[in-house]
Amino acid sequence: MDHNGAMNWTQIKRLARGLNLPSIHEDTRADGFPCLRAHGRLWTWWDETLGAPGFRLPSGERDFLIASDPEAFFVTDAEAAFNHVLARPELLDPLWVRGNLSLSWRALAPALFTRLFPGEGPPVPEFMEH
Predict the structure, then answer these.
(1) Long-range contacts of 120-127, Cβ-Cβ distance < 8 Å, separation of 24 or more
(2) Domain ranges in the chain?
């Protein structure tokens, strides 16, 4: 984390790569924001306008997450149509990031990958195709 305790994009990328999962690459979203893609699909990104990371979520989880911690998690109009959430970096728990990235990688992965890298925890959730 940086000097004020906030996670930055470099730390999030390092945490994501530390999962040692295949088929991850750096890219840029259509809006110009840096992102990581898993299996060619948007996985996590950094909203440079807000200075905040974005994450994919299982269908129906975003409202619950925002309600449970509205200071840490939020959504913008641009992300509202998708199962995405943004987080305030100074309130972001690295353990939550790790868990979210692991679960969302599995959700984006072809079946072969989920058999090779089964992970722990609940069954793979369904994510929106966006």
Answers:
(1) 125/58, 125/59, 125/61, 126/58, 126/59, 127/56, 127/57, 127/58, 127/59, 127/83
(2) 9-116
